[in-house]
Task: structure prediction
Amino acid sequence: MAIISALNDSDSEDDVLVLKMLSNVLKPPRRKRNCITTFMQTISMYRPDEFRSHFRMYRETFHGIVELLAPKIVNVEQFGPGRPHINVEKQVLVFLWFMANQEVFRSIADRFDLSKSTCWDSVHKIASILCQISKDHIVWPTKRQLNETIQGFQLRGNFPGVVGAIDGCHFRISTPVFEHTSYINRNKYHSLHLQGVCNSKYLFIDCFVGYPGSVHDARVTPQFCKWFNVKPVFLKQCIY
Result:
């Protein structure tokens, strides 16, 4: 009441000044926000479940891939001219984001603050390196390892004689120039078959790509068994 009375007795200019002073005094202090300027900073703040949701792997797995690929990426780039190269961690993140989310290069370039050509180069460079080293990491097991896998499936699900869990999917491709109808799958788009086999530890022991989309899934698996001369039962979906 004293403040209101004082305001009534003063001129309008003084009233405005007093009100401004009161508003500054009574206003709660602003909470300082952390300024995020790049998407890389956002990624560093992801919780483990958020990181896995966006990149389809654990952060520890990502760091393992960076450590594995770093020497090979550096060897590819060390003789290249032009602007400074993007660090390995960022290149791997660009590659994983493209693979996990299937965004166009324009959106990825904007997200990671890179040019479209740089994103394209990073994705194709890392894909090429992974193809080169895949034979060192996706390997059909030895006889001893097969016995360990059989024991693993026996302990895990009480399935006897199992050497691998097999499944496949179709991945979309551009319309081929020749024999394009052979690549149209049952969902009416052009594709290739991708089939994978993993052991009882969820590690891939075989990966095959090549059959056109029109080929039924059940025709792909017998070829695999023929190549590797396997007789134990496979865990598989009923479509096989």
Q: What stands out?
A: The chain has two domains: 39-136, 143-235.
